[in-house]
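Worked example

This section walks through a single chain of length 365. The input is the sequence exactly as stored; nothing has been trimmed or padded.
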Amino acid sequence: MSNCLLLFLFAGLVACEPTVVNISPTGAYTLPSVPAHFGSYVIPADNPLTYEGIALGRQLFYDTRLSADNTIACASCHQQLDAFTDGLPVSVGVQNRKRNVGSMALANLLWQRKFNWSGNANSLEEQVLMPLQHPDEMNQSLPVTIAKLQATNTYPALFKKAFGNEAITSENIAKALAQFLRTLVSADSKFDKFIRGEVQLTESEQRGYALFGQHPYPEQKLRGGNCGDCHVGFLQMGSRTAFEGFHNNGLDPDATLKQGLAAVTGNAADKGKFKAPSLRNIALTAPYMHDGRFKTLAEVLDHYNDHVRISTTLDPLVLEASNNLFPPKNEVKLGLTDQEKQDIIAFLKTLTDEKFITNKEFGKP
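Given that input, the structure is written out below as tokens.
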């Protein structure tokens, strides 16, 4: 057989080989299976999820150009392996500037209605623009951010794909970031698998689960950890109705109460009230409380057990919670045993979702 014929046959074989082209999905995005027991959620009609919008939001989330000195990205304070927190008591922005509150974990935001520790944002679209402009966070005006992104070779085309226009606006920056954040669903922890009937909890975890959801009634011999009064339902987060998810949980006396919700409502009765965050992945999000004052979950339980500070706005759910039939006067003592505290912590650790913190779709593009 001649070399020419061999070449002809080889060329024919090559031509018949299928061409593999990697095409990213486009258009409307449907969230992966979301547990029905999480309840209903609402995606704004003017900002539906799309593959292009989510991809753009993810790019923006990890881009340091959104900060004044090009050193801080959203992901700097919300790191995936730490369940989108940063392990610091309070957030640190450009030029090492510190705020008086810590970075909140990002998970299951679809089911939240108020954002930030003080509840001063009513939507994700509103919230995401706040740290960009805050002087102690990213410290960059929206016009400057827009100009920086518009001057790149990549972003105008990405915005056109997502929103039909190369002209970048603050509204579309917010929409893209909000779309990406709404995909951060954590629903595959050991607890979720238990709810689905796939695994069993240990005896300690079972006891902790029961204590977590039980308000104590010592006169009925019902012992409880009182956790579920503020961290409600299968999402273990504050109520989604108005400001009901905000509580003064006895961290400080009247003289040193921080504003919290009162800064938003102007109501003195809201002083010291802060958002009850979701406890999903709580074992990964230390330190705890709005100002990161507690380093461990054990310290958190010790606070509720023995160190609640009475004040004029202390939440009744905390004030009235005691496992002691005759609690001491002028003190709030939850009265858990050491074993009960260990059991509650064992349950809290079942809320860790390893798949969530390693999902490549949530990581840096």
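What to look for: The chain has a mean pLDDT of 92.
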